[in-house]
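As a warm-up, study this chain.
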Amino acid sequence: MADTFDVVVIGSGPGGYVAAIRAAQLGLKVACIEKSATLGGTCLNVGCIPSKALLHASELYHLAQSGLPSFGVKVTGVSLDLPAMMAHKTKTVTANTKGIEFLFKKNKVTPIHGAARFTSPTSLEVALNAGGTQTVTASAFIIATGSEVAGLPGVTVDEKRVVSSTGALELSAVPKHLIVIGGGVIGLEMGSVWRRLGAQVTVIEYLDRITPGMDGEVAKAFQRVLAKQGFEFHLSTKVVGVKSDAKGVSVEIEPAAGGDRSRIEGDIVLMAIGRKPHTQGLGLDVAGVALDSRGRIETDAHFRTNVPGIFAIGDVIAGAMLAHKAEDEGVAVAEILVGQAGHVNHDTIPGVVYTNPEVASVGKTEEELKAAGIAFAVGKFPFSANGRAKAMLETEGFVKILADATTDRVLGVHIIGPGAGTLIAEAVLAMEFGASAEDIARTCHAHPTLNEVMKEAALAVDKRPIHI
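Now compare it with the structure written out below.
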């Protein structure tokens, strides 16, 4: 006999577990299938949460080691206890995954631990982790299986010498030389952790810039900051192959445009060229679900696949591979299933790099606006002119606002500086409500706060900042 539900969610990452909880709140009978032993997916177990735990802990270590005397705080004998730092990370992960278990019980979501595979458009077979199989049927399915590490020809990830982001979270010792393949968010965040803890960090990027897709001016400022922190960059560089042995690793490189090859020697390589949708082994062909040319599940504006009753969200569909994007999509699908107008505005999804300083953005970049032929005005204001930032000794960076030259409507906001990931929320809210730069400029901001930089940047759109 099959277990029957109104909705079955495949995957318990941020998109999946949020979709399951919201559907249950709306009165549906819900099951969530997860192949791992713990709930939460990549984000909570080996992604967002553990990396932020290590980022924060490594910032504190670096501050205690070299930053506190500037505040009149003298410390001696600062040393690294890496096992304790890793224990903090593990405790943080456990607390979050246990939290989802609690929320599932509270909302009467049925968790099923095993690997799901479609046997028809209306049924799944689950190979249970505990052994045996379970057949599950439902009126609707939500595929939320997330993404996995993208590979590179000539590079084999063994999670020992050549690691993915997962392995980079589990190193038992600080590498002497960490070589990061890929100049994107994941590589720079994990590189920051190990750089603060004492590693030499070299970043190899195929393109001529780091963080592709980020506003160009911000990306250049970001690279300068990281270089001052000790990062070494090889841009426009192709990785030909990686060799590893008991002594270390050797990365063979050549110019992206072609040319003489050379080698970089280190002891750990982090493969961080991006992620790809996880759609293998789900029996999508049996269900008849169509994929696009990049292996993503094709959906319409309402997250429906070509098969009635099957939806998809998060990293397996087009768009930014971000946990909060998946969460909003999960809520939208759950509401669509009960006849509500679930919707996600993909133009106002923020992105954040949790380095120090942080980098955050929402909306269009300057390059995108120029390419689209949209006339715009720019307002910038530096943290170096902000009283709170000066008091914190965190004056690196700026806020940049892009507004329509005719209507003054905010089209994009880009921040590099202290607390950028928090500050960007104001910009997201403003854009969601169609605010103008003038609206932000005339909104009272508490003093002294970092948020005042946002107000001053808005004033700068009209060329009238007060404090510079």
